[in-house]
Amino acid sequence: MVTTYQEALDWIHARLKLGIKPGLKRMEWMMEKLGNSEKSLKTVHIGGTNGKGSTVTFLRSILQAGGYTVGTFTSPYIEQFNERISLNGKPISDEEIVKLTNVILPLADELEKTELGGPTEFEVITAMSLYYFANVHPVDIVIYEVGLGGRLDSTNVIKPLLSIITNIGLDHTAILGNSYSEIAFEKAGIIKKGTPVFSAVQQPDAINVITEKAREMTAPLSLLNRDFSICSHSALEHGEKFSLETSVRIWGDLEIGMMGSHQTENASLAVMAADYLSRFASFPLVEAEMRTGLKTAYWPGRFEVVSTNPLVIVDGAHNDEGIKALVEVLTSRFQNRKIHLIFTALKDKKLDQMIASLDQVAEEIVFVSFEFPRASTAAELYDLSCSPNKAANEDWQSAVVQQIGKIGNNDVLVITGSLYFISIVKPFLRDLLQK
Description:
The protein is α/β, with parallel strands linked by helices. The protein has two domains: 292 residues, Mur-like, catalytic domain (UDP-N-acetylmuramoyl-L-alanine:D-glutamate ligase); 131 residues, Protein-Tyrosine Phosphatase, Chain A (Alpha-Beta Complex). β14, α12 and β15 form a beta-alpha-beta unit.
């Protein structure tokens, strides 16, 4: 039994040593012990390579604007561990984390003694969330973000009202496969029998896999650029404006507060999902609520402006697709400004491609490291860069202080890379910029 919040976190994080163990047997075992909490929940399941968190946020914000109580399960966290289990966008309390830990801890100990082995950190947190929303604080609906892949992800014990697959990218290839079709097969594993699925997947090979899986499961499939499309897109000072055309209607001049054309894709998926929930799943919404929800949606660490003078932006671009989206926003919005970058990433990413893209837009790029088991060193990243104006600093804090102190009025400082890095940079920046 744990008695303090820190003890609870220490126990949860200690399970990281078990690594990643794909499969649903341990989750199913724990769910049975907990009375199958997942079966009493109304849920939406969101998978994909990038954009999952943003899509969760857009949909959650729309449903909240409609007056519904919405639970979310997301990963990783940006500022506080408790964010992973949130209620109407607010993390659950430290006390609730302690109580949930004491529910799951004895189950983990018992499971450890079976041939299945002990649950991983992610399985523990997933089980906590399912128990919380079913038994501790019931809600109208819960939106679950897939942790890794989909087919064997611990969240895949739920039976959702609908599924969303945002996109497919070559990430986590050592686990999910080296091709778009292999990765799409894992992502498509969240498609359930007769359950509608909405997707913004672009690659033909991935679309074929998802289409075949949907056909096999007799699940109605709606694809971006086939069944719904984005038109009349334009950039706003603090967001994007676009119209969404479906077979039923046109949603004209929708506005979002997140920057980047890729965010219009995530927002369109949320609109399609919300429209389905409104028309077919007893979650009625009016158009004004949909628009308000989109416009007010906020997701930290995704091209987030943390200071305007000096202009400092943090963005969790942690894989090749994320970096390409970041570069697109920077080149379209800041082509007349000097861009300074601070970057770090995990060793298991396609670092050469990511850094080559950043080299193209950076006036100056500083590579740093941070304390994390799979983090690259600043020197390793530096060696991959071809920028004529690059530096390496193993002390990320001093690099941030130095860069903020030197950028001018026409400069932009972008701190980017691993979301785990962004989670420790944000509170540091908040304190630094308030001085």
